[in-house]
Amino acid sequence: MLDKQRTRIVINDTTLRDGEQSAGVAFCLDEKLAIARRLDALGVPELEIGIPAMGETECEGIRAVAALGLNARLMVWSRLNRDDILQADGLGAQLIDISVPASDQHLRSKLRKDRQWLLAAIGDHVRFARDLGFDVGVGAEDASRGAPDLLAAIAEAAQDAGARRIRFADTLGILDPFSTYERIVSLRSSCDLEIEMHAHDDLGMATANTLAAARAGATHLNTTVNGLGERSGNAPLEEVVLALHVCHGVDTGIDLKGFPALSQCVALASGRPLPWQKSIVGEGAFTHEAGIHVDGLLKDPANYQAFDPGLVGRGHRVVLGKHSGARAVQRVMAELGHFLSEPAAHELLRRVRAFVTAAKHSPTDADLLALFGACP
Hints:
This protein is an alpha/beta fold. It has helices spanning 29-42, 56-66, 82-88, 104-111, 115-131, 148-161, 177-190, 206-216, 237-248, 259-270, 291-299, 326-335, 342-359, 365-373, and strands spanning 10-13, 46-48, 73-78, 95-101, 135-141, 165-170, 194-199, 220-223, 287-288, 317-318.
């Protein structure tokens, strides 16, 4: 369980930066503004909103988001490059994340530099950004493959130069919750900076790793709506916030009931439809078919709910299918205005099972009424 007295967990949502880096995703200005407004309305405290070095169109979008006058603090992203940092100046963001290689693999193969050069460059660029008025985070790219002593040295150089935060990036999504916990505990013991966890979902563990980081001492957590992001995506905002609430009793100050509308907004803007079984916001998240589950749910929702779906503005839904029972048929048909005897329910259930075997989906209300009309 998280120590709720230790610190407040701050969500930094990067839908408008890393989320938009999903292959083929490009938000127009109106979509970017709509997403920013919705995130802010829900109470997300920090938004990472773009990469100024991408050019004037990107800068215009950042300025437009800043001009909304949101309550959220705004962050932009840059490389370890003075020109990148200069392009971020005057756009209205309060925070800048300066990305640096945090593994010898990246340091040697991407920049062809050594550790001594890196640590000096971190100090120089952090001070440069601080002089422009930014609060600075140092983004430790590929930290999960980096040696702990290198990460500690990066944190020390960043802290000495006046940075306030270090971002631990599991860039390739290779960690599990146990290794994440160990790495963040080690980092926490070596610096006094804010620690931000940036998890990717390549192994399907981004949410779990993010929670493990919070338990280990991370103060800030990166998320994206619907888990949007490069390759397999990032830790989903809705999963991280709800899991903090349900599993750890941590209130992030974010309105959970706004998730469905926000999720649909991002799904449409990104062109990435939600999977039917996507947790929390997917159509099937609170949908029940199996007879034993439906029977238990109707007797007492606590029998088969991990949490009240009303927390996230949803409700339970009963559908009919191969595994339904007669009681579920009676319940669903009663909602359609038809009160069936038990024999009639069993006959309709027989027809429903044949329907779903052929159609490969649950019957709609119209399908049910047609099947019911065909019953003797």
